[in-house]
Amino acid sequence: MLRIHKDKLFLDEEETLLISGAMHYFRTLPEQWKDRLEKIAAAGFNCVETYAPWNLHEPIENTFDFSGMLDVEKFIKTAEEVGLYVIFRPSPYICAEWEFGGLPSWLLKYNDIAFRTMDKIYIEKIDRYYDMLIPKIKPLLASNGGPIIAVQIENEYGSYGNDSNYLKYLENALTQRGIDIPLFTSDGPTHYMLGGGTLPHIWKTINYGSKTEEAFEMLNNYQTNMPKMVMEFWIGWFDHWGHGHITREPKNMIDEFKKILDNNISVNFYMFHGGTNFGFMSGANFDIDYRPTVTSYDYDSLLTEAGDLTEKYNLTKSVLESFNGKISVKKHKNHKFYSVQNSRKKNYGEVKFTKQANLFRNLESISEKYSSPTIKPMEYFNQSYGYIVYETEIPYIIKNMKLTLQNVRDRALVFFNDEFKGVIDRNSNQEIILNSESTNNNLKILVENMGRINYGAQLKDFKGITEGVRLERQFLFNWNIYTLPMNDISNLNFQPLDCEIDDNNPSFYLGTFEVDEPCDTFITFENWSKGHIYVNGFNLGRYWEIGPQKTLYLPKDLLKSGTNEIVIFELHKFGEYLNLIENPILE
């Protein structure tokens, strides 16, 4: 059990440092958990850290899921089996470049709700979630003989708010449900973050990537009588679509890590293994504009997205092997030194597509249809992710009239009388001019949710069209609305591929490929424009030609010996084929 005594940490009464690596169970397939965790232990680490994503565990209000990739109990027990302690971060909000920072989208149905404060509705929903989550975690606490040694109250709260009553409530929400091990907060090393993001008696940890001495000099203004810990040591970074691939030079990272050890500071590497934002779960940032996060969460970590060892891994392991300080390991009969290796990769070659299902011809078979006098966002229809279609009729002649979408979230394809007219996205001021001599006009708008904002002041991020659609000054009313969460595409009616396929013709394309032995592989999409990919019914995630990500990781555990099916939903350009290759491509 972890004990704090003044400025020192003790595990099972031995003074120690925590050397931890971040890994999120929900970003990695369960079949891969043990491999990744063994690699953390083999590097000389004694701990793994993970968040818990509320939006996956309660995807529909009052409907909970702790199965498969969400079996948090199994993940924690697996960590214990390989000899690791666990730092658990169940905060209602996790950030993590994750959709909506881990908050469930159905919270947005409550129009006046305020997040991350003592809002009555928000607190009620947290309590119900914790009533389900915490009883699963309680038996795994170190106080009950389990591996969990510390639990977070809230995540980087000082970056968002300063409601100390809210933090006290969350503290009590945990302790009253039986969390009787050390609690902590984590914030950036600034006055306003530390001043607003924690409580006087709570163990304060900090997050940063460099300037160790300066960071802890700042922390000393708020805490001198508790152990020093970097809860997030940023060893790499994440990428946004349309922006460059970000890396951190290994030597630079190692030099900073040595400073941390030399100053007797505990540390959690963020990330040790990043994994993948499968499906539609990547988040977005907003500063001067909206920037959606890519599907890969490789993070330039110690392990690659596919779990392979990197130069950073080997350097870090070498530093720990020569470290003279005390790093207590979990006493366990199965604990040993693991012989770790990279996964086998395979090039399965080219996949050609033989069948097509046009989105608009299949609309009613894969969506829920609603009628509304006014435009409504996704959340109004209990839709969390994917796409949404708005359709209306315009019964008059149109001459050079400007079409305006008031607050599109995030990217819209406009079709007028079945002809593609252009794209409007939330960062552009693009105008679309419509003309028609007919008095019977059809307008369809296909809107993509590219990820809710996960950090900062713009968290309340409704999706779809949030206010209205106008021709010049006139609002258009009376809409058919089709929700397209894209989580079940089994009802698509695929037809033989047309000889000629028009661009900007949103469609699903079906192909198959043969696998003799399942191995990890990577899907290229250089011939395609924008969409997402399913393999054997599993949504791998989004792709986009603007990069920097140029391949999607396909784990071997999603493949089967024999014939495998791949479906690509493409918005703009039919690329004819994909390739399955051995290594990822990044700009």
From TrEMBL:
Residues 378-484 form the Beta-galactosidase 1-like first all-beta domain. GO terms for molecular function: beta-galactosidase activity. The keyword Isomerase does not apply. The active site is at E156 (proton donor), E232 (nucleophile). PROSITE patterns: GLYCOSYL_HYDROL_F35 (PS01182). InterPro entries: B-gal_1-like, BetaGal1-like_ABD1, BetaGal_gal-bd, Galactose-bd-like_sf, GH, Gly_Hdrlase_35_cat, Glyco_hydro_35_CS, Glycoside_Hdrlase_35. One of its GO terms (biological process) is carbohydrate metabolic process. It is an enzyme of class 3 (hydrolase). Residues 9-321 form the Glycoside hydrolase 35 catalytic domain. Residues 506-564 form the Beta-galactosidase galactose-binding domain. It catalyses: Hydrolysis of terminal non-reducing beta-D-galactose residues in beta-D-galactosides. Its EC number is 3.2.1.23. It holds the Pfam family BetaGal_ABD_1. Keywords: Glycoprotein, Glycosidase, Hydrolase, Signal. Belongs to the glycosyl hydrolase 35 family. PANTHER family: BETA-GALACTOSIDASE RELATED. This is beta-galactosidase. It comes from Cetobacterium somerae ATCC BAA-474.
